[in-house]
Amino acid sequence: MRITSVLIALAFTGVALAQSPAPVISAAHAQDSLENRIERLERLLESRGQSQARMMQQLGALQREVSELRGVTEEHAHQLEQVLERQRDLYQEIERRVSEVRSERAAAAPTLSTEGDTQLSMAYSDDLSENQAYDRAIALVLEDRQYEQAIPEFRAFIDTFPDSEYLGNAHYWLGQLLYARNDYSQARQHFEEVVNNHRDSGKRADCLLKLGIIAQNEGDDGRAESRFEQVLNEYPDSTEATLARSRLEDL
Hints:
Helix content is 78%, strand content 2%. The chain has helices spanning 2-19, 27-108, 128-142, 147-160, 167-180, 184-197, 204-217, 221-234, 239-250; strands at 111-112, 118-119. α6 (184-197) packs antiparallel against α7 (204-217). The longest helix is centred in the N-terminal third of the chain and has 82 residues, at 27-108. The chain is elongated, with a radius of gyration of 43 Å. The protein starts with a helix and ends with a helix. This is Cell division coordinator CpoB. Its main location: periplasm. Residues 33-107 form the YbgF trimerisation domain.
């Protein structure tokens, strides 16, 4: 009898459980959850896009800095070479002056003629004014750094001594001085003088390079390319060739 009662109770309990409603997730709640997920994804994508944009900006800035540093390095290397060249020129001028003084002292010593007369003979006497004029002009550049004052000195030297052995150097230095103050038209004339008429000059490679740079600054890339290639062909192992090659890559 007791067992029968228990079974009846269990039957009623099962019916009650079967009739109770199952938990239901509302459509509104589901929609809200989906929107939240989409919103999180959008924020994530936006954040990632901003990070990528910042990285691209930083990369572009780094590339510009590398390019600028490369240009500065090349320019400093050329300036250093110019300083070293000025020092070499200064040493050569000192050696030349010492040699002249020795020659003058030796020549000033009295010598006996065949008739017993004492004679004096001064070496370089014919070129004394030429040497002094060149020394004065070059000293303004290499020693005193009075560049503006050196310009008329070199011009006067070129006009006064058109056949001087220093003529190629005089044209080079005058071209350098005019180039430094951006007087490209006149500087070109003196550099071309060295290139065309003083082919053995140690300054010729730099004159060719300067002619290419002047053409590049004036927007004449064709002529600039021609001059840079001339440097590479005629002076392939020089510092000027390295600079010319770099300039060609930027054309």
